[in-house]
Records
---
Amino acid sequence: MAEPPLLYNLNSSLTDLMTRMRTGIPGAHTGLVVLLVFLVAGFSLFIPNFASLGTLQSFMYQLPLLGLLSLAMMAPLITGGLNLAIIATTNQCALLMAFIMQSLITPDSGTGTALAVIVLALVAGLVLCLLIGLITGALIAYTGVHPILITLGTKSLIDGISIYLTRGMALSGIPDGFSRIGTTTIVGVPLIFLLLIVVAVIVSLILRRTAFGVACAMIGSNIEAARYSAIDTRRMLVGVYVMSSLICFFAALVMLATFNSASADYAQSYLLVTILAAVLGGVDPFGGFGTAGGLMLALAILQVISSGFNQFGLSNYLTVAIWGGILIFVAAVQTARPYLMWLLPTRFFGPK
């Protein structure tokens, strides 16, 4: 007996999705690796010692904050959503932790007291991020309003509260024991870079190897099909934005350890770059697919471009303009990919 058309379509869509999650977009990561090697080789021809151990270590200090923020953006993108509040969430979390440390740790505080206050600050920051993620996810899941509008509203609300409470001033006074995390290395590798790698691996395993990750991909590919597959899409959406905000907590830790202060204005220019890195790394802007590995390669490419232009003496504003052009180009190529598949050999795009 033949399967009903709807059930057959659902099973076929699920099979295609699982295949895509396991294998990825054919040649996508290879293309990113080739582009990265090409850029490093190209800049090395004109900039002495560009491809050196010192440059690599500099990259490892610069990437963690942007990398964690990009991971926080990637998770909602896979479900076909967006989280415009990641920077605001990170800054407010960092401000809360800095305020607790600044207020409760005095010059007379002993090591035990300082450690207890730091733990209290970390717990408070974690709870704040989870609360923001829970509220944001619930609003998106249960109101049906597009994530862009909800997260734009939460971004404005969080930024407004942060600026009002701090009067736009930065908070410093981070304990030396905590701030040293930003410069600590293990076998020459910065500790904050190792944190990025650990979080990226965990996020990758969650999105590719768990039922939650499969459900997120199904929601991004076809939310109606996900509902017919007995997936609680509302609960999954709440979970996605909670995970996104939880990653912001780790970004706040890196921010405090790197800058030794917190402000509502920090990293505001990173919002565009997180979307660019995700799309360049192979995340489907319409939802349904994306890998942390591709994201890390895209971040490395963007960092190489930024460092190369800076050493050429070009303006940072020009770099931002080029990043915007790359985002438009990549989005256009992804949109035109179904048509290109019929024009180019199958070895570039896989079977037609």
Note: The beta strands are 185-186, 189-190.
---
Amino acid sequence: MMNFENMEFELNTSTRSTAFFIFDNEGSIEYALDCSFKPNELSEELYGQKIAPTLRINSIVTNECKIEGLIGKRFCIDNIEQADEREDTFYVFGHEPLENYELTILDIENDRVQIECKGVAVIDGYAEDYKTGNFEINCWLPIITSVSDWAKFGL
């Protein structure tokens, strides 16, 4: 589930655009994630449009050797420049950088990971004074370590 600007969005688990990716980097683990959300079915709109946000956080290097070692790990970005350099994005009307965020890995079980991510996303970077929105995500994502993992989740 995600709360974005006081609107609730359900995670879209029927797509390969929602996953927690784990890569082996010469004996240590790197991870990245994509979270896609279903359009808000309520009458709420943002700037007159129904939206279906997406969060993308690119590869994060760790010193961990085992997936279980990621539990409790936190990763933070403090400003737009850092997010832009990493190409971490939040999609509302277009892919925009995040102003800041904190990602925490809460739990891992049954080939899924529970994450919490809180921050501020740029909604409209083209405005003279760009517009932002607060978001908070707490959800379980499928863990993907290879192409064959998609079959476990029926994708």
Note: The chain has a mean pLDDT of 92.
---
Amino acid sequence: MTDLADRPEEALAPRRKRSRHVALLLAGAAVLTLAGCEDDAVDAQAFPDLNSCIAAAQKDGLWFTEEDCRTQFAAAEQAHLETAPRYESQELCEQQHGQGACGADPAAGDPATAQQQGGGGFSFMPLLVGYMMGSMLSRGGGIFSQPMVRTPTGYSTPSGNQTFASNSGSGRVPATTFNRAPTTVGQPPMSRAQVAQRGGFGAGATARTATGGTRGLGG
């Protein structure tokens, strides 16, 4: 791994510091298993909850601040509510995301949403189990986030086009990891037949990704 290219720091928030070593880890954290090539990669850090992010900002002074933790956690919560996959039953959801990893869809309580979903049918979605922040500072951008959900073998972004072994740790990920997934609010929940046709969660990411493309495992 290589360090990010140097750039002027004057325009950045006073407490924000870029990591000098992209492999720098929190105590006890694991390196993220990357799902994609190193081309166009950015620094990323994943956390299982808001408090662990704040603790990291206070202790290590990486490229994000406590304010970034709070702002991006709120953004990840909203993105999860709007873009997480939705299923017609909890059983079907847990088959794709693991036992105990799903819950009732909070948006299904909205009458307008329920009507759009076919006359009041309920739906289920994977629970939010953490969030990932990515630094675009070296590109003149800011900090972006993605919610993380469980899969039977690890963790994933809502679109399913990036998978990781852990929801805690640092590493380099493709910049496209932070592309927003299409909204699923108001859409009919996926049926068993639809999930089977797509080959399971993540297999149909090409059809569900706003950019029209995905990255497979490896380079």
Note: The first strand starts at residue 41 and ends at 47.
---
Amino acid sequence: MAVHHIDPAEALASLRTAREARAAARPRPLPGWYPATAAGLFALGFVLLGLLVLLPQRLWLADAGLRLIAAAALIGHVVVSHRIEHRPGIVPALPRGAARRRAIALQLLPLVAAGALALAFGAAGFLLTLGLTGGFGHLLLLRRKRARADAE
């Protein structure tokens, strides 16, 4: 039987590397402020775009201000979502089974509702409904995702 002699310094370095790799692979929960912030920015951006459709065109200063705020909210939503969802240790994936169907339904229902109201009220109905229902669905999904990560 062969005996292998391992340098204690190399063994400690290997153990440290393994511990760091294990810590990096451990999923970190979403911050508590993230669900409300992401959903609120989404809703605000689309609701303001819907209000822009209803606003008389002669109010150009209010129109420009609302466009700027709506764009800032939607860009903020994308930036915040990207920064949080693409952190090390987070692998974005849809859940399996019934939870997957609920997640897909929460993303499709706002589009269906917005499409139905678009037929009745035009672009304003579409954007307002998408903002409110999409923001609410986004909030529910992110809270559920955060609760699931906390339970693990």
Note: The longest helix spans residues 98-151.
